[in-house]
Amino acid sequence: MRFGCCLNMVSTGTDGTGIENIEKLKEAGFDYVELPLAELTRLTDTEREDVVGRLNSSGMSCEVCNNMFPKTFRLTGPDVRIDEVLAYAEKALHIAGSIGAKSVVFGSGPAKMVPEGFPLDEGYRQVVDLLKLVDPIAGRNGITIAIEPLRKAECNLINTFEEGVRLAEDVGGENIKVLVDYYHLTVEDESPEKVRKYGKGSLVHVHMANPDGRVFPKAMDESDYRPFFNALGEIGYKGRVSCEAYSENFSEDAPSTLRFFRDNMTQEV
Questions:
Q1: Domain coverage including residue 68
Q2: Which residues of 87-122 are buried (b: 16+ CB within 10 A; e: fewer)?
Q3: How far apart are CA 43 and CA 45, in angstroms?
Q4: Is-contact 4 35, C-beta < 8 A?
Q5: Which region, left, alpha or beta, applies to residue 70 given φ > 0 means left and ψ of -120 to 50 means alpha?
Q6: Among 36, 118, 32, 104, which residue's Cα sits nearest to residue 74?
Q7: How wide is the angle at C-alpha 45 spanned by C-alphas 40 and 46, nearest 5°?
Q8: Which residues form the Xylose isomerase-like TIM barrel domain (predicted)?
């Protein structure tokens, strides 16, 4: 496995990317960084060049981007402007590919939220149709889209890993896969058995957090991690795992979490 961290969750800078923490992440020993695509896309060309320069000078790679669509976008409901959405996707996925990202996370709860009074099944079809159009764009940029199921408090569509897998199957795209986030899985009380049942061949990325406060995970007794780790092992998952969590002391939390990952996620089950 390769271990990374979503720096936007610990961002203190005005651009919201969290890139100011990249040297600390490198010092802690992580393999890669996960940066927010909507924030990267909003930067000027010069500002993005500065981000790339800081990545290069630190020796870290941005292998994954999260936060695919801005909160202001509408992906469901009567006000979708599909031409604008696809134009953004073309630009954003090109940026992601140009900085070396291999996967882009599609959670985008505010953008995907089905408006009140609009049929959920129609909103679902809109997302299916959108991803069918995004699939070849992702392919041209060497990107795999990772559908991220989100807890109901963040979105009313695609809340479980099983639903994420079904969405990927309904899209049927070569570059559309699924992410599992331990925090959302736990909050929605979804059994890790679903990862074991549906994950092989569909799971492309993992997010981790201690669900008690959505903070950096550090110890096995914080949560019932073992069944989840066992499920990943049993489907042969050897891909990327990103810590997507909040921290009040990143310099101390980052190395502790990396030790936790290496001690508990790579062992034989």
A1: 2-264
A2: ebbeebbebbbebebbbbbbbbbebbbbeeeeeeee
A3: 6
A4: no
A5: beta
A6: 118
A7: 105
A8: 22-262
- SS3 for 114? coil
pLDDT in tens, 141-153: 999 999 999 999 9
Asked if residue 12 is part of any domain, the answer here is yes
The token duo for 94 is 């090109």
Question: What single letter denotes the amino acid at residue 103?
Answer: S
Q: What are the residues whose beta carbons fall under 8 Å from the beta carbon of 25, sequence distance 6 or more?
A: 5, 7, 33, 60, 254
Note whether residue 217 is domain-resident.
Answer: yes
Predicted local confidence at residue 266, as pLDDT: 76
Indicate the residue type of 78.
P
Q: What are the φ/ψ torsions at residue 181 (nearest 5 degrees)?
A: -115, 120
What one-character DSSP code corresponds to residue 115? P
Q: What is the chain's pLDDT, residue by residue, as a tens digit (269 residues)? A: 999 999 999 999 999 999 999 999 999 999 999 999 999 999 999 999 999 999 999 999 999 999 999 999 999 999 999 999 999 999 999 999 999 999 999 999 999 999 999 999 999 999 999 999 999 999 999 999 999 999 999 999 999 999 999 999 999 999 999 999 999 999 999 999 999 999 999 999 999 999 999 999 999 999 999 999 999 999 999 999 999 999 999 999 999 999 999 999 975 43
How far apart are the C-alpha atoms of 85 and 66, rounded to whole Å? 17
pLDDT in tens, 233-252: 999 999 999 999 999 999 99
C-alpha distance from residue 17 to each of 11, 47, 250, 258 (Å): 6, 11, 15, 21
How many domains does the chain divide into? Answer: 1
- Which helix (H) or strand (E) segment holds residue 100: the answer is none
Residue 65 lies in a domain: yes
CATH code, domain with 229: 3.20.20.150
